Amino acid sequence: MFEFAKQPVKLVKVSTPMENHGQELKLGVVLTIVGVFPNTILKAFGAGLLESLFRKPTEEERADLATDPDTLCMLRHPRMSPFSWDYETDGNQVTIDHGLGGDSDIKLVDVKVKSVEITPLEGAMCSIQWNINCHPDQKDVGALAAKQKQDIAMELNGPAPQSAEDLFNKAA
User: Helices in the chain by DSSP H: which ranges?
Assistant: First the structure.
């Protein structure tokens, strides 16, 4: 599951579409986020993804690196362009640092993570762009819009396990 502790990311875009909820219209917010993560985050998107994009360094390459020789830190396909990944989850929680911490943080609940785009980077890193669809309090919409095109500190937590199977699969 794609989740992370407080991490610097960039809030690229804030969109505010009106959504139909039966006969009523409800303000929705779509946040486009991009962040750079260690390539091990790719395990959250599927088994084998990390290994298909990165490889161990050769003996010759290892001389130039100060990493563990078993680390998957070399790009398998250096010319690879960013690619979309079919990943979507509901029920996530997001906390965005609003400057003073604690009660001033913007907390978004029951958000949907979708539209994931992955870019493998040299040095055992990857850039991930994704959308967050949510329905924040109206007072938070302006604060989110004001943070557009800025670096922010964000935490993303996946949905709480709904069954014992979910709990044990998350721990695996």
Answer: 49-53, 59-62, 138-146, 164-171
| Average pLDDT of span 25-39 | 96
Is residue 134 within 8 A of residue 29, CB to CB? The reply is: yes
- Please count the structural domains in the chain: 1
Q: Is the pLDDT of residue 171 over 60?
A: no
Range of the domain at 29: 4-171
User: Which pLDDT score, from 0 to 100, does residue 115 have?
Assistant: 97
H or E segment and range at residue 42: none
Question: What amino acid is encoded at 24 in this protein?
Answer: E
Sequence-separated (6 or more) residues with CB below 8 Å from residue 41 = 2, 4, 126, 128
* Residue entry with tokens 């109206």: 138
Radius of gyration of the chain (CA): 18
What does the alpha-carbon distance between residue 80 and residue 94 come to, in Å, rounded to a whole number? Answer: 30
d(CA 71, CA 67): 7
pLDDT higher than 80, residue 62: no
What single DSSP character describes residue 72?
-
